[in-house]
């Protein structure tokens, strides 16, 4: 089984990316941490044809190759971050998300106004358009702060680590 991990954050010290790096360390299956969010061009339907931008080609290849996808994205201005929405827009032209098991981890701090709920509601809507198979039991809200990330860029908070393990197990178990 191969699991693709996609962070919706471009921040160098992102807690969202730290969660996925931690997931990569904990996983008992093959994983790929997607790393080209900032390299994707702005989505333009006129450009969604061969030859595709190389970063778009690599994104679609990674989505196709994955058996399941785990997202971790912040909320920005009450919605998905623009760069992450752009990534999702580029997947519309491919077939890689069709019926693919997907889940997300929400790590918005308890102090966040909506706890990231608006971003994840939007993500749910977009994934519906992509016909992805949302694995509800694998979706988790694991509030944390930047202090939960060690100097090595991994999450150390025991409750969050336990939640990540649960999400991984349920998502992996959903793959036929």
TrEMBL record:
Q: List each coiled-coil range.
A: none
Q: Which Gene3D superfamilies match?
A: 3.40.50.360
GO CC annotations, alphabetized: cytosol
Q: A GO molecular function for this record? A: FMN binding
Q: Where is the NADPH-dependent FMN reductase-like domain?
A: 1-137
Q: Which InterPro entries match?
A: Flavoprotein-like_sf, FMN_Rdtase-like_dom, NAD(P)H-dep_reductase
Kindly provide the name given to this protein in its UniProt entry: NAD(P)H-dependent FMN reductase
The organism's lineage?
Answer: Bacteria, Bacillati, Actinomycetota, Actinomycetes, Propionibacteriales
């Amino acid at each position: 089984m191969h699991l693709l991990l996609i962070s919706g954050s471009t921040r160098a010290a992102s807690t969202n990316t730290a969660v996925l790096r931690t997931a990569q360390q904990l996983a008992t299956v093959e994983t790929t941490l997607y790393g080209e969010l900032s390299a994707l061009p702005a989505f333009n339907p006129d450009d969604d044809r061969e030859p595709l931008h190389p970063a778009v080609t690599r994104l679609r290849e990674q989505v196709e190759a994955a058996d399941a996808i785990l997202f971790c994205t912040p909320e920005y201005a009450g919605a998905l971050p623009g760069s992450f929405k752009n990534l999702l827009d580029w997947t519309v032209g491919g077939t890689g998300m069709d019926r693919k098991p997907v889940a997300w981890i929400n790590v918005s701090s308890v102090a966040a106004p909506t706890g990231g709920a608006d971003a994840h509601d939007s993500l749910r809507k977009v994934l519906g358009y992509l016909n992805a198979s949302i694995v509800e039991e694998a979706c988790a809200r694991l509030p944390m702060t930047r202090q939960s990330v060690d100097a090595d860029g991994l999450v150390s908070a025991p409750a969050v680590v336990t939640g990540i393990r649960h999400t991984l197990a349920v998502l992996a178990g959903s793959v036929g």
